[in-house]
Amino acid sequence: MSRSGRFATWWPGGSAEDEDGTEPDPRFTFANERTFLAWSRTALALVVAGLAIVQLLPPFPGVPAGRHLLGVPLIVLGAVLAIVAYAEWVRNQRALRRGEPLPRSVMPWILAATIAGMAIISAIVLLISALR
Amino acid sequence: MSPVTQEGGPPPGDDPEESDPGLARERTSLAWTRTAISFAALGGVVLKVNVVTGVIILAIAPLVWELGRIFRGGSPGTRLPVVGGRRLLLITVSIVGVSLLCLLVAILGPAAPGALR
Predict the structure, then answer these.
(1) Domain for residue A3, yes or no?
(2) CB proximity under 8 Å: A 57-116 to B
(3) Is the predicted ipTM greater than 0.85, yes or no?
């Protein structure tokens, strides 16, 4: 697929989204939109959590960069989730229009992997500051 | 037992939405409201750290609310995916922008350590 063709499939109103298939049941369109909005709120919650960790928590003794180590990845993950949520909304809407099975979502995997990673980093930061 | 339609289509199920698709619209409209409130909540937190950035994020909340209202006025059968697509892209762009602002505030802003002590 050419670069401009790929862009057309992602930009709303692009040819691939409009003309392929038929209008799905409105309930499915609504449900797809709610899923996108729910992921968007998850993304915002991650951003606010990251900001609160960096700005509002007292510093970890012995780990001066500890708050940034925990907060910055959460804020970045928020931005990533928002983008992936939109990409998945487009994919799901296209599948609904064409009557195809819905593609598998990668977002639960991204979220679970990042939360597990953050838990490990948190444990290490806490251990270091406790043992110091 | 649900009756089977003459046309061979799926019989109406137990889902109340099948007799009233307006419920799906209502739930979606509530989801937009929650999303607007989430922006406002984030703006409130940022306000504690950096007033200008906080006000910018707080200003996004009513815009999101209005984006949700556009669709409350619509009728079933309108070309929602197209209209929805632009609005949803706007939400994504807002969140990416807001997270960049928060990243700047987090890294450069004056820390208020102990605010949660």
Answers:
(1) no
(2) 57-59, 67-68, 71-72, 75-76, 78-79, 82-83, 85-86, 89-90, 93, 97
(3) no
